[in-house]
Amino acid sequence: MPAKLPLPPIDYCAIVSRSHRRPRAEAYAWTVRDPLPTIPVPLRKGDPDVPLDLQAVFTTVYDRARYNLSVDYTGRLAPPLNASDRTWLEQRRANASS
Predict the structure, then answer these.
(1) Hey, which of 52, 58, 64, 98 has its CA 20 to 30 A from 14?
(2) Distance between CA 19 and CA 21 in Å, rounded?
(3) Distance CA 10, CA 8 (A)
(4) For residue 14, which of 27, 30, 32 has the smallest C-alpha distance?
(5) Which distant-in-sequence residues (6+ apart) come within 8 Å of 88 by Cβ?
């Protein structure tokens, strides 16, 4: 999606596009190290946004589907992490296992 201003270095992005403001939109960006954000979900023009806590949604689905039993966290990532993020992940793994 074309942007008026360049986005900062990010891994993930959610775009919120309000029908009455198009083609303008809001971008919510985060990196692999950040918890998922809460983003506003627009309803009708004039109605207040509904906050959507992406981290809570992800955690609920992950826990209820029991992905911890089926995901292999020792395998290679595709695409691979950059060196600093790989070091960060290895430290998190080490802390989680101790």
Answers:
(1) 64
(2) 6
(3) 6
(4) 27
(5) 33
Q: Which two tokens stand for residue 92?
A: 């998190």
Could you give phi then psi for residue 55, rounded to 5 degrees? -65, -40
Task: Give the three-state DSSP class for 46.
Answer: coil
Q: Is 13 left (phi over 0), alpha (psi -120 to 50) or beta?
A: beta
Residue 71 three-state SS: coil
The tens digit of pLDDT for each residue in 8-64 reads 789 999 999 999 888 889 999 999 999 999 999 999 999 999 999 999 999 999 999
Specify whether the backbone of 66 is left (phi greater than 0), alpha (psi in -120 to 50) or beta: left
Phi, psi of 91 (to 5 degrees): -65, -40
